[in-house]
């Protein structure tokens, strides 16, 4: 596996804590799953898998509270399936009837350096090789190309990214030492029909948060 580094910045971010059922409250730092999604927005194929190993915090943590209008529900899967079978049905959501206002505690003016390993899954591409996918990612990341716009927790919070080719020459992260408690690591897709969230004890030391492997014994369901 080869390790890649991206510098990611954004005006706003919200890495939602799952224990907050009603109001959106962000973790202090980007979660491994959100960092993985940034890499996947640049390159994702069935034959590769991203493993986030380290997050460097480049700017002090700043908070903001915001009240937003949201739609309270989603289109029913059953209604969609019925419409597909019968060729008719009402799949519309009417904002005026379904609007609700929610408060949120978000991050602002964020910047991180994300380090992740690119794993090549040979059984998914028997004719391919790891270098092919490494070159694809390097080419796309260097040009600022992406499959979809990377975002910081919520899709409306767009992220800007830059491929870091030599992290040793970059400025040091901020001098931050803090224990963040249990943080969402990622979803375990061992059972694809019932993915389970997994958590780890997050700690930032010298502005660096190390991320254990999803299968490490310190990562809990």
Strand content: 35-45%
Secondary-structure content class: alpha+beta
Rounded to the nearest angstrom, the distance between the terminal CA atoms is 26 Å
Oligomer: single chain
- List low-pLDDT spans: none
DSSP strand count: 11
Shape label: globular
Number of helical runs? 4
* H/E series: EEHEEHHEHEEEEEE
Helix content: 10-25%
Global Rg: 19 Å
Q: In this structure, how is the largest beta sheet organized?
A: 9 strands, mixed
Mean pLDDT: 91
Give a quick summary of the entry.
By secondary structure, the chain is α+β, with helices and mostly antiparallel strands. It has four helices and eleven strands, in the order ββαββααβαββββββ.
Defining key terms:
221 residues, alpha+beta, nine-stranded mixed beta sheet, two-stranded antiparallel sheet, 4 helices, 11 strands
Report on the structure:
This protein is an alpha+beta fold and 221 residues long. Helices cover 18% and strands 41% of the residues. Strands 1, 2, 3, 4, 5, 8, 9, 10 and 11 form a 9-stranded mixed β-sheet that branches. Strands 6-7 form a two-stranded antiparallel sheet. A hairpin with a 7-residue loop joins strand 9 and strand 10 (196-205). The longest helix has 14 residues, at 130-143. The relative contact order is 0.26.
Write the layout of secondary structure elements.
Elements: E1 2-13, E2 24-25, H1 32-42, E3 48-57, E4 63-71, H2 77-86, H3 95-98, E5 99-120, H4 130-143, E6 151-152, E7 154-158, E8 160-164, E9 178-188, E10 196-205, E11 208-210
Parallel strand pairs: 2-5
Antiparallel strand pairs: 1-5, 1-8, 3-5, 3-11, 4-5, 6-7, 9-10, 10-11
């Amino acid at each position: 596996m080869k390790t890649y580094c991206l510098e990611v910045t954004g005006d706003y971010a919200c890495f939602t804590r799952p224990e907050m059922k009603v109001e959106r409250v962000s973790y202090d730092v980007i979660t491994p799953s959100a960092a993985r999604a940034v890499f996947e927005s640049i390159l994702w194929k069935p034959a590769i898998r991203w493993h986030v190993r380290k997050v460097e915090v480049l700017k002090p943590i700043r908070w903001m509270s915001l009240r937003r209008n949201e739609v309270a529900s989603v289109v029913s899967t059953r209604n969609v399936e019925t419409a597909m079978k019968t060729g008719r049905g009402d799949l519309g959501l009417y904002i005026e009837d379904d609007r609700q206002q929610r408060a949120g505690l978000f991050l602002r003016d964020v910047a991180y350096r994300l380090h992740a390993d690119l794993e090549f899954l040979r059984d998914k591409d028997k004719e391919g090789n790891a270098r092919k996918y490494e070159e694809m990612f390097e080419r796309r990341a260097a040009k600022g190309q992406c499959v979809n716009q990377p975002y910081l927790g919520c899709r409306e919070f767009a992220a800007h990214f830059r491929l870091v080719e030599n992290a040793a020459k970059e400025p040091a992260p901020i001098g931050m030492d803090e224990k963040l408690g249990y943080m969402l690591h990622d979803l375990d897709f061992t059972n694809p029909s019932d993915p389970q969230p997994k958590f780890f004890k997050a700690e930032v030391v010298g502005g660096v948060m190390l991320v254990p492997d999803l299968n490490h014994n310190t990562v809990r369901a």
